[in-house]
Design goal:
Largest sheet: 6 strands, antiparallel, barrel
Order of helices and strands: HEEEEEEEEEEEEEEEH
Number of domains: 2
Oligomer: single chain
Distance between the termini: 37 Å
Structural class: mainly beta
Strand order of the largest sheet: 1-2-3-8-7-6
Radius of gyration: 20 Å
Strand content: over 45%
CATH class of the largest domain: Mainly Beta
Number of strands: 15
CATH topology of the largest domain: Thrombin, subunit H
Helix content: 10-25%
Number of helices: 2
CATH superfamily of the largest domain: predicted glycosyltransferase like domains
């Protein structure tokens, strides 16, 4: 089970105490060998963060529809084209709540269509209505959209989600819906839980969110 989840090129979240504060960084598993798990070392503003040998860190990994985490120790560093940290293999993995997926306020466009039924996916319609993504995580999003009779709790949406460098189609289900106060277009806010997404695109979402978090922290706005 552990070998199935911990794999080379898997994107992870690395949590460590740096400068007296607990920080979270995006990272990636570069190498797996007998010495430990080799991770891309966290950077801030292009400078290596001061995580020391012997420090305790927490690693969170998304695998399929679940999250797993483990506490471990930093065993060493490796220099090269990609500076790396070597951490100890865990004795076990623990399940983490899906809400642990990092969530961030964003402003992204999406095109969508409300599906009449799941059978509509056999010959899926083209998402032509425009929505605004206001909050995003690896497992869900909050969007502002035009209201319509078909849009209700448990409705399925086929969505073309547009990140700055990549767009992909996902399927998401409405889990809540509420009016938006003082919106002149009388849109509604819909909470959507992602049901189908390519793992590569989910990784890209998480990478984008961590990048945004770093940039906002560097600018002092987060």
């Amino acid at each position: 089970m552990m070998e199935e989840i911990i794999q080379v090129n898997q994107r992870v979240e690395l949590e460590a105490v740096v400068r007296g504060e607990r920080q979270c960084y995006p990272s990636r598993i570069e190498i797996l060998d007998g010495s430990g798990i080799v991770l891309a070392a966290p950077l801030r503003g292009g400078v290596l963060e001061p995580i020391r040998i012997g420090d305790q860190v927490k690693i969170t990994i998304a695998h399929r529809d679940s999250l797993y985490a483990f506490e471990t120790a930093v065993l060493g560093r490796r220099s090269g084209h990609i500076p790396c940290l070597v951490v100890q293999w865990p004795a076990e993995l623990t399940a983490a709540n899906r809400r642990a997926f990092f969530r961030l306020d964003v402003l992204l466009n999406m095109d969508y269509v409300v599906l009449e039924s799941e059978e509509a996916l056999i010959e899926p319609p083209i998402p032509e209505k425009r929505g605004l993504v206001k909050n995003l995580s690896g497992c869900g999003l909050l969007a502002w959209v035009e209201d319509e009779p078909k849009l209700r709790h448990n409705s399925l949406l086929l969505i073309d989600l547009h990140l700055p460098d990549m767009s992909e189609t996902i399927i998401a289900r409405v889990v809540r819906k509420a009016p938006i106060a003082e919106d002149h277009r009388e849109r509604v806010a819909v909470g959507l839980e992602i049901e189908e997404i390519a793992s590569t695109f989910q990784d890209e979402i998480i990478r984008y969110l961590f990048q945004q978090q770093r940039e906002r922290r560097n600018k002092g706005i987060l």
